[in-house]
Structure formats: C-alpha cells, structure tokens
Amino acid sequence: YIYHVAGKLAVQVKGASLLGRGGAGFPTGVKWGFCPPGVFPRYLVVNGDESEPGTYKDRILMERDPHQLIEGMLIACYAIGVSQAFLYVRGEMALAQERLAQALNDDFSVDIVLHWGAGAYIVGEETALIESLEGKRGMPRLKPPYFPAAKGLYMQPTVVNNVETLSNLPWIVSNGGAAAAQ
Q1: Helix 2-15 and helix 66-80: axis angle, to 10°?
Q2: Peptide bond into 36 cis (omega under 30)
C-alpha cells in the first residue's frame, strides 16, 4: 500500500510539470526518478542557502510559512522513499533558522536535520552543498562520474531540491497534478 501511495504522489508531481526553482529548472518528478531502485538509505537535501545577490524568495518562505516547507519535505520523503532529510539554511538567515527550528519542534517526530551553512556562494551548487553537509569545504564535485541521485550525500542516492520547489508540493497534493499544470 505504501509503495502504491508513494507512486501516486510521484505521478502527481510529474503531472504537475513542477520545475525545480533553484535555477536549473529541471523537472522535479523526473529528478526523483533518478534514484537507483532498491538502494537505501537515500536522502533528501533541501537547498535553502539562497546566496544569489538580491534573491529572497526562499528566505520569505522559510520565515513566513516554515510548516509549508516541512510538509513539502515530508511529501517528497514519502514519495522517494527517504527516511532522513537535511535542510541547509544560509548562516545569515537567523530568523528563518529560528522559525524553522520552532516549526520542526511543533511537528511530529521525523528525522529532519537543520544544518546552518557558512554563507559561501558556491554551496548553491548541489554537489558543493553536499560536500558542506559532509563537513568538507563546499566545493563542487566532478560530474560525471556520479550525479547526486546515484551517489550523493555519504555516497548514497540523494535528491537535492530547492525550498520553493518543495513548498509547492502541499498544493499539488491537495489539488492534483493536472490543476497545477494549468
């Protein structure tokens, strides 16, 4: 039953034609499908670094409605079979960090790690963000040979999505992929 429901969620996201909002615009449902089947553990990494000068869309979402982001993370985790997620937030975003920490305390128990970044512009690139999460210098990994969906965080399958991308998921689940695609 769980795999049936998770599969339906992934189909709704694909049907919504939700594009990643982190810059590359890659289709979210397609990205989720890149994880190799049967390989666990796998992780979800949420890029809340938003270090592009003059951009505040993710910051506003994290500060004003952290529960919407967390709900989107839970939906994504369920859809792709993830038991642990990492939320990477830029170090200078103190209010966003505070509100997210409180929202995580308000919600039921799920393993979401809130990680504060050091404020390096380069960690907006997904493999640099993964390196930073692992405690290394935030520098991009060479691709190929491995993309994060195959070998990402701790060399396990990893999906990296942006805050705004995941914040769209509750609406898509409530209203359906077809409605979102319009």
Answers
A1: 120
A2: no
Mean pLDDT score of the chain: 90
From the list 168, 62, 39, 154, the residue with the least C-alpha distance to 117 is 62
Q: Are strands 112-116 and 84-89 parallel, antiparallel or unpaired?
A: parallel
Query: How far, in Å, CA of 23 to CA of 33, rounded?
Result: 19
pLDDT digits (tens, 9 = 90+) for 64-98: 999 999 999 999 999 999 989 999 999 889 999 99
Contact of 164 with 59, CB cutoff 8 Å: no
